[in-house]
Amino acid sequence: MRDRPAPTLRRRRTSLLRQLPAPRAILRGSLIERYKRCGKPGCKCATGRGHGPKYYLSISRSGEHPQMDYVPQGYVEQVREYLANYQRTREILEEICTINRELLRRRERL
Ligand SMILES: [Zn+2]
Questions:
Q1: Rounded distance, CA 31 to CA 69, Å?
Q2: What is the distance in A from the centroid of ligand 1 to the CA of 34?
């Protein structure tokens, strides 16, 4: 970053913008897998790891317990994709901020 000329930084920024996932396709949190024992006498789950997997979206906020939303099987792949999009969006925004800060330090055109 430090040794790259300003036009290179701006080109990198343009390239990052093009890689931004669609802002509507994001989810924050993490996908959790759960196996549950049903408690019915004689069910094979009593000795195994339980029924499942069932999926939950776990969302944490500072100072609160994480919230768990059940995710139906048909949504799991899309939820994975949206979670990845959110992470990628954060990385891209962070790198753009770093570029802008560097341009500012050099008194270059933002
Ligand atoms: Zn069972």
A1: 10
A2: 13
pLDDT in tens, 53-64: 999 999 998 888
pTM for this prediction: 0.86
Confidence of residue 25 (pLDDT cuts 50, 70, 90): very high
How many A from CA of 43 to the centre of ligand 1? 5
Distance 35 CA to ligand 1 centre (A): 10
Query: Residues with Cβ within 5 Å of ion ligand 1?
Result: 38, 43, 45
Spell out the long-range contacts of 66-73 with Cβ–Cβ below 8 A and sequence spacing 24 or more: 68/32, 71/31
- Residues, the chain, total? 110
Q: How far is the CA of 55 from the centre of ligand 1 (A)?
A: 17
DSSP H or E segment with residue 103:
helix 76-105
